[in-house]
Every structure is written in C-alpha cells, then in structure tokens.
Amino acid sequence: MTSDPPLDPTAAFRELGRIRLGDTDLAGVLDQVTHLAARSIPGAAEASVTLIRRGAAETAAHSGPSALAIDKWQYELGYGPCLDAAAGYTTIHVPDVSAEKRWPGWAPMARDAGIGSTLSVGLPIQEQVTGALNVYASSPDAFDEDAVGLAETFAGYAAVCLANAHLYETTTAFVGHLEKAMAGRAVIEQAKGIIMGQRQCTAEEAFAALAKASQDSHRKLREVATDLVMAAAAGHRGKQNHS
C-alpha cells in the first residue's frame, strides 16, 4: 500500500499538467500518473496502469505490489476487470470483491492480496494502444459515486497525457531512425564520390563496386562506405602531415 500522503485532486490535476514530455519518457509519465491517482482518489490504496499493445497486456506502472499482482493474474488468465475496462473504454466498479462472481477465481485472488474493492477506467490512448487506470482499495465499498466520478475525470486527464507521451515517444523514435537513415545515405554518397574519383567511373559503377564489397565481406553497405570514407580521410590527413 502507498505510504505517500493524500493529495487534493485539484493539486493532482495541476501536477499532471506540469509533466513535460521532453524531461521524461513514457515510463516516467506512467509512474507519475499511478502515484497521483493513488494519492488523490478517495479510498485508493494502490493504483496501476494497464497498457495493451499488439494484443499483449502489461502493467506499465504501479504504485504497490498488490496492484501489480492483481494485474498480472488477469493477464495470465486473459480476463478480469482491467482488461474489460480497457477493451470497452468503460468504467468497471467492483464495490465488494468478496461478492464478485463475473471472473472465476479473480475475487479470491484479489481478496488474498488484501484488496476489498476495485475500480478500472478505460483509457483510449491511441489506435494501436489501449489501457486502463486501475485503482485498488483495502476495504469494501471504498469508492462512492464522487470517487468514481473523480477517477473518471482523472482518467480523462491521464489519457490525454498518455496519448501525448506515446505520440512524443513514437515521433522521437521515428526522427531518430530518419536521421540515422539520412546519415547512412550521406556516407554512401561520399563513398561513391571517392570511388568515382579513384576509378574515373560513373555513379552507377561506383555503387556497384560498393555493393560487391558489401556482399564479399558480408557487411552492411553503410559500414563498408563508412570504412572507405574514414580511410580516405586518414590518407588525406597523412599527406597533409608529410607536406
């Protein structure tokens, strides 16, 4: 169970709004979301965020061991409140775990983990990614209507934050791949120029020579081109030193 002091919901929303995506990664955002939820939703003892990507569910962040254990149990069996909430973009409230019968075996496991009531709110994050904010309480009937409404409002804030974080992470990765591809293309063009100068051949013939060297050495074309450019640069520096 979380040992952090309770936090006023308004203050929690302000904290969500202060998250700067350039200062943290998606995991960091999710960690802040779960801890803010556990501290600001009345009755909450622990919280977690379930993410479902390419059909695989995982607990991307959690504020305590009970939340993680209950989530993992659902993933292993393929059913449970957090998975249903994520799939249906809906809110699933279990007021009393002991009386719950919708998911065979789930209630005894949750009760053994020290949980008396649960609340899962679906998070429509992105087309390929869905999820749920899961809130766990140690006693039955811990979440009244106001708490449920607050959790849904909190989840709305969290969903926007998570969607932006996912977009930021995806875009950053794409830019990184693009920069790497452009750098690779640039060095290949440099290597072609060196070969054309050495052999007095066409660009097509220079590229064919690079491709053959790549095949013969079982190395990537970019690596062969990089070695050629570096060797040419070293040779040029050597000539300058001797002049």
Any overview of this molecule?
The protein has 243 residues and is an alpha+beta fold. It folds into two domains: 9-173, Beta-Lactamase (2-Layer Sandwich), CATH 3.30.450.40; 176-242, Arc Repressor Mutant, subunit A, CATH 1.10.10.10. Helices cover 60% and strands 16% of the residues. The chain has eight helices and five strands. Strands 2-1-5-4-3 form a five-stranded antiparallel sheet, sandwiched between helices. Helix 1 packs antiparallel against helix 2, helix 1 (9-18) runs parallel beside helix 6 (145-199) and helix 7 crosses helix 8. It starts with 8 loop residues before the first helix and ends with a helix. The model has no long low-confidence stretch (mean pLDDT 83).
CATH 4th-level superfamily of the largest domain: GAF domain
Our estimate of the beta-strand percent is: 15-25%
Overall mean pLDDT stands at 83
CATH architecture of the largest domain: 2-Layer Sandwich
Structural class: alpha+beta
What are the segments in which pLDDT stays under 50 over at least 5 consecutive residues? Answer: none
> What's the helix count?
8
Quick summary of this structure?
This protein is α+β, with helices and mostly antiparallel strands and 243 residues long. The protein has eight helices and five strands, in the order H-H-E-E-H-H-E-H-E-E-H-H-H.
